[in-house]
Target: Glutamine synthetase type III
Amino acid sequence: TARQQAIQTIATTTYQLNRIVFKDKTLKELFGANVFGEAEQKARLPKPIFKALQKTIKLGAQLTDPNLADAVASAMKDWAIEHGATHYTHLFQPLTGLTAEKHDSFLSPNSDGSAMSEFSGKELVKGEPDASSFPSGGLRATFEARGYTGWDPTSPAYIRETPNGATLVIPTVFVSWTGEALDKKTPLLRSMEALSPQALRILKLFGNDEAKKVITTVGPEQEYFLIDKNFYYARPDLINCGRTLFGAKPPKGQELEDQYFGTIPERVIACMADCEMEMFKLGIPVKTRHNEVAPSQYEIAPIFEDSNLATDHNQLTMDVMRRTAETYGLVCLLHEKPFAGINGSGKHNNWSMSTDAGENLLNPGDNPHDNAQFLVFCVAVIRAVAKYPELLRVTVASAGNDHRLGANEAPPAIISIFLGDQLQDVMDQLEASNLKSTKQGGHMEVGVSVLPKLPRDAGDRNRTSPFAFTGNKFEFRAVGSSFSIGGPNVVLNTIVAESLDFIATKLEADVKAGKSLNKAIQDLLPGILKESKKVIFNGNGYSEEWQVEAAKRGLPNMKNSVDSFPSIISKASIELFGKYKVLTEKELHARYEIFSEKYVKEIAIEANMMVHMAKTMIVPAALRYQAEVAASVNATKAAGVDVSTQMEHLKSLANAISKFQTLTGDLKSAADHHAAGDAYGHAKYMKETVVSKMEELRKLGDGLEDMVADDLWPLPTYREMLFIK
Ligand code: ADP
Ligand code: MG
Model:
């Protein structure tokens, strides 16, 4: 069987593991070597152009100088060609959640038959990839299908090296000819622009007139699986769906907890080092690597950056990992739930706000003034999450993530906030507006008291909360491992912008009316906390009690994605995103359509793949085994031996096969049925009818795996894929 061949190949192949030697080139030399970053720009651009470009990058100033694009393009091209690039591409992030690109060469033929290389400002700034096949959710019909890419100077261009040449990659937005966002980057940039002025209003109240811009910062921790490529090729479900649709529970799973933070296998370390080398060259500040809880599961985490760059870098990280793994005979699985019964993969979106001078606004300070400012920003976030939990929920909705959220795994589908004992104590006192001593002793009064030292997140402590305060940032843990973090951060930035706006408006009015700022804060925050505290939960998010308690508090608990999609086009959503000019009603509707459609397609592919595997792999193996058993029973009976036990075995096998075949037929007709109505109606149908049939069929298929003779079973098993390294 393909399965036996896979094991044989793995056992006899040796891989070259010492490809990366950091002795030759140090990390410091490598970092950013393939990026057209500030140093390179400074060295190659005329001074005024460099200054104007930096002003745009750092402060978001409009690019007004018409010569700028040409000058930058020319310098970029020279730099790229020196690095061996032959082509350039605009890289964009369509609503599929992946990245897309179309390459053009620098080649420009001369009339005499020779050629020169060319790259103009126009080509840098705007591209017309057409790209009419990407989902647009009705934002453009095919006859007006042109989509444009536009240069995002705030995310630096870079060189992507492959063994077959290099390409200059230019990060871009992707919009329709009427300016509607067809991508993930455009709304993200808009949401950052929405938050900055509101945060600056608060800073101004605190007397900070220097800050020119507030950015949101993100550090995404990325979980993933690495398994041997030979197993992958023997599993059509992994190839086409990214997850196993069948697979019996192995005798050993993650129960021994012998994998978490354990030593990393040689081949995996070599692969990680190679990935990191690539990422360093691309200027991605990767910091941490370790084993995760499930067998063959790992995590990589970078140092945080502004949310636009962090989003681009996370897309690039996933890309580099996928490509590099292959070199080591591995496959990087980024699906949220590649294997049932063991942990799935997520992405922890660590989020904060920072001034252009680098002051982290969610860092509790050492003096009363800083503490008061911290409390205002922190309460703004709490209010935002309490007001818009549905919007956060829907940013992490997908067929894949449904196996995590709302299943028996971290975190639950209920959006709640973890504050920790100390901060909770502070908030309680603030809410009660009483000045009793804190747990640390002393008194708490806004703008007068020093906060108790808030402990930094101690790793595992509160892993069950989807949104946890971890010392100087919030960690949104419900994001799926395969997601673009663009969506979640668009929502975070916008809902917090709304909260800051609300708070700033009240405080400004009070101060104008003659109240002291501290008094105004002390008067305002308790009310906000009273209204918002329903979303705060410091207990065990996995527990049954929390489900009950959350229902009592009236918190939404949308266990599956389909239930959450309508939140995108709710009145609250349309008002919010419209007010802050992040997404128009039309753009929101497009997203609602696209997410519904994507859900339908993903489930349909999985259902059809299950049917195919059932018919062509599992049933044939089971029938062969049945024939063997039947022949053996007949022969034994003929020899005059009592076969009653074997007969029972044969009967139960035959029965299991029949049931499996019947249900396969059921699933096929359910998946083929086209539900009436729009994309959302179809998604609902898939969720209600097809998904449950898939779950049933899987149970029966896994039952057969536990019955059929091992030498006949064609699919690599869990115990092999997860443990043979
Ligand atoms: P832990 O979560 O284990 O306590 P760290 O606090 O070092 O670990 O950070 C985990 C992730 O959070 C890293 O990717 C880190 O860069 C990111 N992070 C730290 N500070 C911030 C911040 N101010 N804004 C956004 N992300 C941050
Ligand atoms: Mg963490």
Q: What stands out?
A: Residues 434-443 have pLDDT under 50 and may be disordered. The longest helix spans residues 585-638. Residues 221, 348, 475 surround magnesium ion (ligand 2) (CB under 6 Å).
